[in-house]
Structures are given as structure tokens and as C-alpha cells.
Design a protein that fits this description.
The protein has 260 residues and is an alpha/beta fold. It contains nine helices and eleven strands. The N and C termini lie far apart (51 Å). This is Gcp-like domain-containing protein. Pfam families: TsaD (PF00814).
Length: 260
């Protein structure tokens, strides 16, 4: 992928929303090192050792990082908490700013050869985390969100895209309803591990021409690329960073049931 304009310093990007997760280091606007995780190890077991090791492979340390980027969700509740906490702790060492990036925005950023892109991230319980994006004609067009009421504090829409279906969660059947009218004029690409898992359902509901793609490479690389173009209002301090759950955590649902 071509180098992007924007922040040129050292960026450490982390993604723990998926089971494998990943880390990437960017400098001068390009990826200089990255590492994908393994589903055989938990994020707790790998962090922060993998971050320190990846930086060390470039003769860098935590002191050299000038910006952090982290996937803030949606995704695994436990994974998000581990990843966000790790970045918050590291950022506190030298008061380095953090950029929060939607996992769904990172997913769609890896698919730039399609006009209409839907993201389906596996949410378990026969559900997917979903959002919809329309690629704009003009290269370099500012990202546009259909669901935000003002400048977002996290990056939820990649540059050059319009968000046409907001971040949401539901069954593949429920999410497919959102696309049925749009498919009358445009073909659809669905990307993500949820799209791969529920490919047969998607094609049954939306037609066999739907293009289904798994997660494209190391999502941490996309998280880092998106963070290069963060606005001043998207450079957050550790205490301002919040997860984007979309669905309430199990512990909260269980607590509400007990109270009810």
C-alpha cells in the first residue's frame, strides 16, 4: 500500500479486537515492521513483550514512540480491555498522544478496490459487528460519517469513504436487511471474519454476486495508517481513551438480570 501523507514520526499501532491481534510500527508514513499474533496465545501472554521485541528489532525503544494507535472496538471485550490498558500504560511514560481507531474502519481500509463495502466482524452468539461504507470518487476526500453529530474523537471512517450504515451489531439476517435496497444499483463486498464465517448466509440473503473477503492481513497496519491522518481533536490522553463496545459486556448484562 502506498505511503500516506500525515504524521511522519514513530507510530506504534496495536490491534487486540480479534483473537490473533497484531502490532505494527510506522515511520515516515510507512510500515517499517509488523507482527501478527497467534490465536494460541492470549493477548495478556503476549503484551507488552511483543511490543518491546518489535521495537527492539528496529533498534527502537518505548522512548522513541511519538504516537500510539489502538483499535478501540468493536471486538472481543477482553481483548479490547487488554490492548487499551497496555497502550494507556505505555503512553503515560512520556505523555505520548493516542489515536483510537474503529476496528471496522481498519477492516474497510484494507479494501479499496470496491465501491460498496460492508464489514462483518464475528461477534459470537450468531451475531456480527457491522458497518457500511461507500468509496468516494475523489482520492483524498475527507472521511464522512452518517452517524456522527460532530468531529469524532476516534477514527471511525477511513479517508476517501462515506459511512452509510452506522456501527451496529446483530445477526447476519438482521444486518443483511440494511443492504437489500442498496444492492439494486451497486455490488457489495463484505470483509471480515464474520463475513467469512457466515458467507453462505450472506449469499443466500443478498445474492451469489456478493464478494466475501476474510480479514486482509495484519489489521494493526491499517490502524497505524489511519492514525497518521488524525486531527488535533483525535490525539487523546490515556484517560480520554474509551472502548467502542457497541454491545454491552456480558458482566453488565448479567448484573442487570440479577437486579431485575
Amino acid at each position: 500500500m502506498e505511503r500516506r501523507r500525515g504524521f511522519q514520526g514513530v507510530v506504534l499501532a496495536l490491534e487486540t479486537a480479534t483473537r490473533p491481534g497484531g502490532i505494527a510500527v510506522l515511520h515516515h508514513g510507512k510500515i517499517v515492521a509488523s507482527k501478527s499474533g497467534s490465536a494460541d496465545q492470549t493477548h495478556v501472554e503476549r503484551l507488552p513483550r511483543d511490543i518491546i521485541d518489535l521495537l527492539g528489532s528496529l533498534d527502537l525503544t518505548i522512548d522513541d514512540v511519538e504516537r500510539y494507535a489502538v483499535a478501540v472496538g468493536p471486538g472481543s471485550f477482553t481483548g479490547l480491555r487488554v490492548g487499551i490498558s497496555a497502550i494507556q500504560g505505555l503512553a503515560l511514560i512520556k505523555a505520548v498522544p493516542i489515536v483510537g481507531v474503529s476496528t471496522l474502519a481498519a477492516l474497510v481500509d484494507g479494501v479499496r478496490d470496491s465501491k460498496l463495502v460492508g464489514t462483518w466482524l464475528d461477534g459470537q452468539r450468531n451475531q456480527v459487528f457491522s458497518a457500511g461504507y461507500l468509496r468516494l470518487k475523489e482520492v483524498g476526500s475527507p472521511p464522512t460519517s452518517a452517524s456522527s453529530g460532530g468531529p469524532p474523537t476516534i477514527i471511525s471512517v477511513p479517508e476517501g469513504f462515506l459511512e452509510i450504515e452506522p456501527h451496529s451489531v446483530g445477526t447476519p439476517q438482521e444486518m443483511s436487511i440494511c443492504w437489500q435496497k442498496r444492492l439494486e444499483v451497486k455490488s457489495l463486498t463484505l470483509v471480515g471474519d464474520g463475513a467469512h464465517r457466515y458467507e453462505s448466509e450472506a449469499k443466500d440473503l443478498l445474492g451469489s454476486t456478493v464478494r466475501v473477503l476474510p480479514i486482509q492481513g495484519n489489521l494493526a497496519e491499517n490502524v497505524g495508517r489511519l492514525a497518521l491522518g488524525a486531527s488535533e481533536g483525535q490525539l487523546l490522553g490515556p484517560h480520554a481513551l474509551r472502548p467502542l463496545y457497541i454491545r454491552r459486556p456480558d458482566v453488565e448484562l448479567a448484573r442487570n438480570r440479577r437486579r431485575g
